[in-house]
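Record type: monomer structure entry
Structure origin: computed from sequence
Chain ID: A
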Amino acid sequence: MKFSITKKRGLWWAISGAGILASIAIMIFSFTSLNAPIRPGIDFIGGTRIQIARDCSVASNCDQPIDTAQVREVLDAQGLGNSTIQLLGDNKQILSVRTENLDGDRRSDLLSSISEAIGKFDSKTVQIDSVGPTIGEELFVSGILALLVAFFGIIVYLSIRFKFDYALFAIAALFHDVFITAGIFSLLGLTIDLEADSLFLVALLTIIGFSVNDTVVIYDRIRENLAANPDKSINEVVDNAVNQTLGRSINTTLTTLLPLLGIFLFGGQTLKFFALALIVGFILGAYSSIFIASTLLAWWRNGKEKTPITIPDTPASE
């Protein structure tokens, strides 16, 4: 059965437009609450992050989830009232605290006080990360530059391989993928205090690479079909190209998502949300390649074909 995407392009654009508008609204709300569109992690703003887990081998130590109010009292007592507290794990027995930069003695005092308040923790689970504010700023700037360079390189490559309008709509599809992924993580930052770290920027770069690869496959088939069938309308050419590559796009996306789902469900805490960002981005990338980049190109080429050619008047011969 032939699937026509150009006939319902208004629906595809409406779905994407709603997602983008929702992402903008969420990030604006996040900016008013957190002074950032996405809750920034320690990688970008600096500080010390301490993560510990209760020792559940001790009797009655893990009967109840960790009480964040007790942890907050400890932090207030040590002059760290602006610190953030997060509980991890299904049974809420893992504590993550982000504070200002602490030296070795203050870290030890804090760990001891927290242990007295919430119970004995497993020393093997202690994770301490410290990043200075200067290094955090450098990581953020480097990550943004990497994204900009990736977008610029894609425009140049697609303009050379295809034409500039191909590149322009591929970039529009990439912005769609990155923007909505960022909006979802902004929402997670507001609801579950999820912080975006350097791995999030790595995920965005990976999403860009995956999405543009899918778009290039469809564009390549459109170009081949245009050369082989110059008499056909651009809508028919695009529909044929999408149908010819649809199975490949779906199979590639599914086989990529399966290991990512495994990492998200069974992997460690560090990679869990990195995998989630890739899952969201890859699904959006497959969607935008099929329903956004191709339909925008068909719409644009239709407009160019319908533009009347003006023939200048020639003076009548005397």
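Annotation 1: Residues 87 and 95 are 5 Å apart (CA to CA).
Annotation 2: The radius of gyration is 26 Å.
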